[in-house]
Amino acid sequence: MYIHETQIRVRYGETDKMGYLYYGNYAHYYEVARVEAIRNLGTSYKEMEETGIMLPVLELKSKFVKPAFYDELLTIKTYIPQMPTTRILFDYEITNPKEELINIGSTVLVFYDINKRKPMHAPDYVLESLQKYF
Amino acid sequence: MYIHETQIRVRYGETDKMGYLYYGNYAHYYEVARVEAIRNLGTSYKEMEETGIMLPVLELKSKFVKPAFYDELLTIKTYIPQMPTTRILFDYEITNPKEELINIGSTVLVFYDINKRKPMHAPDYVLESLQKYF
Amino acid sequence: MYIHETQIRVRYGETDKMGYLYYGNYAHYYEVARVEAIRNLGTSYKEMEETGIMLPVLELKSKFVKPAFYDELLTIKTYIPQMPTTRILFDYEITNPKEELINIGSTVLVFYDINKRKPMHAPDYVLESLQKYF
Amino acid sequence: MYIHETQIRVRYGETDKMGYLYYGNYAHYYEVARVEAIRNLGTSYKEMEETGIMLPVLELKSKFVKPAFYDELLTIKTYIPQMPTTRILFDYEITNPKEELINIGSTVLVFYDINKRKPMHAPDYVLESLQKYF
After folding, report:
1. Nearest-CA distance from D13 to chain A in Å?
2. What does the pLDDT look like over B24-34, one tens digit per residue?
């Protein structure tokens, strides 16, 4: 399993009138977390797109355990729990500065060939960069 | 079961560089859809908050079947599949102008007493407004 | 001068912890307002992009007179104050349900030829659709 | 004059179908930049709110010189050009990784007493923290 950690500070514009981080904004945080997890493997999602591969999201799940508040520096643990196929799974655990678990999430993404306009298998360099974790 | 339909047009700022409605923005659409579903029952979420009840989201699930594109007028069917308890469930089905199903979602929300700072049972006027659908 | 009116309801996720419509979200409202103003002229911004013309924003100005609140149905008056050249100006006035003026804004956009990658003059069909207002 | 620098990486969900950072999202970046500028002075906007002072935005101006793209690490220079009174001005200059100037912005905010519900003079600790820069 591959695990990576990143931190995001809650912006004012991301809160809602309840005073909480709006539930729709967690998807942005997952995106940042998985992009940084990929970057840490030595590649980048931006380069992946430039070589004709995109990664649209097929599924999103989220459990909101406790609220997150303005200006909190959240820690997001990103897991790639299994070797990717045509799909890649990411799991997320978000903790607040008190180290309380506040959110659990998961996303399923598909490797998609932009030119052929169809799903494709995970490219070799992605598989190779993940090899040692499995 | 209670079913309600609402329409939302995809804004430019809600698309991403893939040209799709960004996956994080569906949560906003679900919110609009359930708020309009509640309004159609004769009450409003705004008034609910003003009487000391809020409805934070506990769970979010989404399946992205097909992309949504800029300027498309999407139709969101909102379902309340069972009588609320301390929790209320909403299911969503989104179709595009070609009447293709593009997204399936669900959210679980909890009735929360703002003053007592704890979960509470669905208020009577909510239950009464839903009675005839079950 | 061309004037057009459109309405937008404030979404929960667009408010911030102050309880106000977040100041960054007015730009989305201006976008919706000018897109609807263009649609009312018989063309659409989407089609414009499909024929190779895009309209990036060069300047944005906003005065926040009074706050907007959750669930308010705002009215946005959009003005095209002069015939477009390579640039097109839009002015905006937003009023709340009490008919109070809450925001004044303006944007300058440039007609941009996607293929030639340079600014261009406003296309004839845009000029023709505006002729009778000037 | 007080000057502070902060960096923000462009998120996928912040781009639009043009492939650019959406023009409405610069307001979020300005907010992050001024919050970090304030934090660097030894106080925090969060604490300010907790002591009953909020800082709603009165005016926003933005010039979009060049587009910003996905995954670019932008540098935002924030200026407080003069000692605050009841109002505080912030100017912003954003540069991309090629060190090209891509955006110039400014905001005017007002110190607002939450309990008295009216504008107030900048609190002493803010003025003191800025003294040495003027």
Report:
1. 6
2. 999 999 999 99
Supply the DSSP symbol for B55.
Answer: -
Q: Which of D27, D45, D70 sits opposite A46 (nearest CB)?
A: D70
> Can you tell me the distance from the alpha carbon of A60 to that of C37, in angstroms, rounded to the nearest whole number?
35
Which residues, listed in sequence order, are joined to residue C60 by a DSSP beta bridge?
Answer: C107, D62
Those chains having 3 or more beta-carbon pairs within 8 angstroms of chain D are: A, B, C
Interstrand relation of A53-54 and A101-110 (parallel, antiparallel or unpaired): unpaired
Distance CA D60, CA D80 (A): 15
CA distance A70 to D51: 15
ipTM metric: 0.95
Place of tokens 């903790």: A95
Residue of D nearest to A8 (CA): D8
- Number of helices (H), then strands (E), belonging to chain D: the values are 3, 8
pTM, two decimals, is 0.97
D6 to chain B nearest CA, in Å? 24
Q: What is the pLDDT of residue B25?
A: 98
Q: Would the CB atoms of C44 and B11 count as touching at under 8 Å? A: no
Which of A19, A22, A70 comes nearest C13 by C-beta?
A22
Q: What digits encode the pLDDT tens for the residues C81-116? A: 999 999 999 999 999 999 999 999 999 999 999 999
pLDDT beneath 50: ranges in chain D: none
Give contacts of A56 with chain B, Cβ < 8 Å: 18, 20, 23, 64, 67
Smallest Cα–Cα separation from D83: which of D36, D27, D39, D121?
D121
Distance CA A129, CA A35 (A): 14
Question: Within its chain, how far is the Cα of C109 from the centroid?
Answer: 10
Q: What is the pLDDT of residues B94-130, one digit of tens each?
A: 999 999 999 999 999 999 999 999 999 999 999 999 9
pLDDT in tens, A35-74: 999 999 998 999 999 999 999 999 999 999 999 999 999 9
Domain A2-131 belongs in CATH node 3.60.10.10 = no
- Domain spans in chain A, listed from the N-terminal domain onward: 2-131
Compare CB distances from B70 to D17, D23, D24 and report the shortest one's residue: D17
